[in-house]
Amino acid sequence: MPRVIVVGGGLIGLATSLLIAKQGHDVTVLERDPEPPPKMPEEATGDWARPGVMQFRLVNFLMPRGRQLLDEHLPEVTALLAASGAPHHNGLATMPPSVTDRAPRPGDERFATLAARRQLLEYAMATVAESAVDVRRDVHVTGLLSDGRRRVTGVQLRGSELPADLVIDASGRRSPLPGWLAAIGADAPAEESEDLGFVYYGRFFQGPPDAGGPLPIPAGLFHYDSYSVLVLPSDTGTWSATIVLSARDHALRGLREEAGFTKLISACPMHAPILNLKPITGMLAAAGISDRLRRTVICTAPVVTGLLTAGDSWACTNPSLGRGISIGLMHALATAEAVGAHLDDPAALAVEHDRLTRKRVLPWYRATTQVDRQRAAQVAAAIEGRPPAPAPASPEVQVVQDVSAAMMVDADAFRAFLELTFMLALPEDLVSRPGFATHVRTIAAALPPSRFPGPNRQELLAMLP
Ligand SMILES: Cc1cc2nc3c(=O)[nH]c(=O)nc-3n(C[C@H](O)[C@H](O)[C@H](O)COP(=O)(O)OP(=O)(O)OC[C@H]3O[C@@H](n4cnc5c(N)ncnc54)[C@H](O)[C@@H]3O)c2cc1C
Questions:
Q1: What residues line ligand 1, using a CB cutoff of 6 Å?
Q2: pLDDT tens digits for 271-314?
Q3: Which domains does the chain possess?
Q4: 325 C-alpha to center of ligand 1: Å?
Q5: 111 vs 86, 93, 223, 415, 420, CA distance in Å?
Q6: Would 120 disulfide with which of 116, 265, 292, 318, CB 3.0-4.6 Å?
């Protein structure tokens, strides 16, 4: 009998299983999708079918923090990713020309990631996992087994059962765990969830293979009044451009069509050059993606033992900041650490997993949803034609605002902006740096308000049919 069963062979289920297998434990991954990773990377971005992951063909970015965690703990994954055509992309390449101090500094390599489409990332993770872990595909987990005393003892499959010492639910944002727990008579987990109503319309383009030179198009997430544009380099010379807006903005729905999308991108001088590349997909859309947090330990009491959650099953965020994989990798590490220390003591394992999750990973979930909430409020104000309500006053909010302004001219502020964006520092980390908040406050206060060149919502409405 496997000691550990991981339900779900997505990025985080596989990462968790690899980390636990490295400790010498017997791990089995049960994945509903039947197709194993293809032999060659170019097949991964071709026909590989992964219906269990709705975002499989959508825009994707691995935060430098996620790349760093993979380099440290699963270097075979980043090695295969790089060998499969994912180039190193350093965020410093996006430094605005208005920053005059352009000298490199020690530690600048922390801003680098491997630019890859999700299919390639899943290919690298799954290929490494297949060689190290028992991955069983075409296996649909339908419920939990229990001893009737709030202890999970394995999983139910279609027509059979598989016992285990520990079950880790990594079945993603649509994880049916509350139903499974109810079916074995356990208390419900505590959940909080909200849908901030962002929608995403984008497509991929093929550029020349990465030649390692300066970026031909500025990459990043650019906020306009009621919409944002996300431009990302990817593997083998591919790029994506995505418009992020509010589902409530019915008047801008035309942006999901190719004609509306092209009209907007061509009206934004910073992004228009991407239209010179060859489109390699039609329009890709995503909507209705909630932020959701689930806790199976309530006030230090686990609702069951013998069960942990990992990745999106524990907490998922809407993808406007592209953080889910990196938050999930942090969680995979916390999960493996707890398993390494307490696999033989289910109650201690549940409590330690909860403690590590709250200490190391929860702050990133909270920070992400806070940024998203502020952006949603700005977008709502722009749609209603009123100024946005001021963000709640706090040193953390102030330093983020000041960094966002000062980064246009100051090299320290730009690096701090990358640290925030790439999940290398939380706002409170910047606040605790001696003199930093005053430094960026002084610069930001002296700068006139600025905005990226491109139409505002009223101008956009006039442009669209
Ligand atoms: C539109 C969109 C875009 C995103 N873009 C980014 C981005 O650019 N950068 C980023 O960092 N994050 C992004 N994310 C978030 C990121 O995709 C997730 O955080 C990450 O995939 C979570 O991995 P996971 O393994 O926990 O879950 P998943 O990737 O969802 O994997 C879950 C797996 O479980 C399997 N499964 C489900 N139910 C069962 C069952 N009953 N039995 C067996 N197997 C089952 C599924 O088939 C699937 O393979 C995005 C999310 C969305 C929705």
A1: 7-13, 30-33, 52-53, 55, 58-61, 140-141, 170-173, 286, 289, 311-312, 316, 319, 322-326, 328
A2: 999 999 999 999 999 998 999 999 999 988 999 999 999 999 99
A3: 4-194+291-368 (3.50.50.60), 198-287 (3.30.9.100), 390-465 (no CATH)
A4: 8
A5: 16, 10, 21, 9, 11
A6: 116
